Design the sequence.
């Protein structure tokens, strides 16, 4: 992703920060629901009923977010970051965007291949995006688990990196994304 | 380069060693990982999960590649449901409006062995999928018992454990079965009700029961507890009168022969619960005299082997429900949904073996 940077910008735009924290809450909830529901008998139905619309919500938001990301000016990286770190930050950002886009599509696709109705709320449901094939379902169901673990690991790396910058390097990197306004000095 | 005011108080750098802060980061990350492991049940290895439940089915009956872990032996059917409009009083579900919806289904017998010989005492199953005009679906998995023998998933599981074959005799230990019944009086009572209904001669003249209570909500927003059953139009005939049990597929062959002769029909009967009727315990029948509403007729007019039918690859999950029907507080419902899904996922990825009821068997 080509980063358009403006020296005067110290924070991501309000919309980008809003989408970041909204999606952070949704994705963490989603990972928690996902790992809990596959081990649950009593709460399985309730959790699945939340999992489906929440996943489609993430899919819609990630598309909006990508468009916003590509059309906004971005704050500069802190000067404390080496070129290698910047490269790693870009790569992990791209990985997160990819996972957030692919994971809900795989979920939608696997329900389609299993011929499950893809119910969102009440009688509102989505059309299937793949033909009825249990072989395809088995593959995508496995992929859904692997992608979920990858997403969790990517989140841990992201969380660890920002904690490191905030508590050890103390370069104010978190200020670029906090929900409130941080003014340049 | 931009300099940020936030988090850059120079005094803060004097407090606390870097090592302590690093340790803090480690604790935070481990905490997040721990929370996820906790949610996923890693710290409760004895808790009943869908996976452990299906493992137990496999321990009792064995594992047969590509087949359902329970109700493994089956044959598929097609037909339609003609709704008479009476059900709209109780539920706004599109399926109850006057009109016809296509149905596919699957008759089965209980147990995990897809090649087992049919027996009159076997529990007979019927899974159905109604495809509604607005794209919604209603799926149900019914059996020919008027009540279910187990009140919750734990009781069902404990009974499976008690019926594991003994490694020496290859038979279940009768003492374990007796101990289970002694500690589950509700199962003993339910079995009493089940055995007081003599089985019919075949699938075609069996009544199938939805077992669990559901909540029906009508257009006015009124919600009523409902149980349903399919009552055959084909006259009841006692099983003993037929004596056709030489054929190991006699139940399925009887079904195939009768459906090829003429379409089979059942009335869908809703039983309307009253306040106080138990909705969370499928071992207990509702009191006699509850209002019953005939909401339409199911017609099944074609039969085919699992090998050629899409019904083989459908999970008859009882919680695939249209708007207007919701689950009750019966603990079996969510568990059935979870366990069916686990069984479906396991067999989906396995090599498919031929069904006992082959395409040739259906054309005889």
Sequence:
């Amino acid at each position: 992703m080509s980063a358009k940077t403006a020296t005067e910008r110290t924070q991501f735009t309000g919309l980008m920060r809003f989408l970041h924290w909204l999606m952070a809450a949704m994705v963490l909830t989603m990972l928690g629901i996902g790992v809990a529901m596959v081990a649950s008998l009593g709460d399985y139905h309730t959790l699945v009923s939340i999992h489906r619309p929440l996943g489609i919500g993430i899919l819609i938001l990630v598309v909006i977010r990508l468009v916003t990301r590509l059309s906004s000016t971005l704050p500069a990286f802190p000067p404390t970051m080496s070129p290698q770190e910047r490269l790693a930050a870009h790569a992990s950002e791209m990985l997160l965007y990819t996972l957030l886009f692919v994971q809900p599509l795989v979920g939608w696709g696997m329900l389609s291949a299993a011929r499950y109705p893809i119910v969102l709320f009440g009688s509102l449901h989505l059309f299937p995006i793949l033909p009825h094939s249990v072989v395809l379902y088995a593959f995508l169901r496995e992929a859904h688990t692997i992608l979920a673990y990858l997403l969790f690991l990517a989140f841990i790396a992201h969380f660890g990196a920002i904690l490191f910058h905030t508590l050890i390097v103390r370069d104010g990197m978190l200020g670029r994304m906090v929900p409130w306004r941080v003014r340049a000095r | 380069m931009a300099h940020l005011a936030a988090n850059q108080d120079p005094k803060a750098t004097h407090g606390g060693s870097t090592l302590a802060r690093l340790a803090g980061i480690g604790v935070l990350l481990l905490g997040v990982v721990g929370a996820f492991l906790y949610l996923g049940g890693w710290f409760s290895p004895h808790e009943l999960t869908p996976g452990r439940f299906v493992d137990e089915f496999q321990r009792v009956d064995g594992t047969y590649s590509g087949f359902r872990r329970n109700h493994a032996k089956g044959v598929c059917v097609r037909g339609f449901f003609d709704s008479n409009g009476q059900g709209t009083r109780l539920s706004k579900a599109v399926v109850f409006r006057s009109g016809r919806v296509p149905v596919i289904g699957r008759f089965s017998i209980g147990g995990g062995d897809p090649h087992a010989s049919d027996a009159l005492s076997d529990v007979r199953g019927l899974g159905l999928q109604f495809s509604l005009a607005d794209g919604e679906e209603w799926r149900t998995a019914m059996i020919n018992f008027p009540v279910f023998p187990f009140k919750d998933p734990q009781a069902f599981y404990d009974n499976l454990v008690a019926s594991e074959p003994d490694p020496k005799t290859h038979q279940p230990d009768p003492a374990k079965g007796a101990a289970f019944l002694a500690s589950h009086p509700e199962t003993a009572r339910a079995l009493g009700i089940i055995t007081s209904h003599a089985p019919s001669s075949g699938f075609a003249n069996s009544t199938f029961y939805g077992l669990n209570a559901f909540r029906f909500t009508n257009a006015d927003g009124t919600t009523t507890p409902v149980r349903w059953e399919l009552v055959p139009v084909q006259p009841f005939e006692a099983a003993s009168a037929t004596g056709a049990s030489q054929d190991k597929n006699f139940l399925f062959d009887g079904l195939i022969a009768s459906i090829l002769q003429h379409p089979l029909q059942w009335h869908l009967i809703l039983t309307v619960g009253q306040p106080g009727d138990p909705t969370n315990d499928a071992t207990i029948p509702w009191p006699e005299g509850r209002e019953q509403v005939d909401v339409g007729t199911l017609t099944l007019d074609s039969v085919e082997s699992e090998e050629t039918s899409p019904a083989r690859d459908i999970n008859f999950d009882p919680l695939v429900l249209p708007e207007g029907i919701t689950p009750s507080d019966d603990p079996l419902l969510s568990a059935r949904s979870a366990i069916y899904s686990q069984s479906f996922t396991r067999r989906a990825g396995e090599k498919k073996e031929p069904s006992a009821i082959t395409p040739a068997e259906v054309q005889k």
Summary: The longest strand of chain A covers residues 118-121. The CA atoms of residues 33 and 50 of chain A lie 8 Å apart.
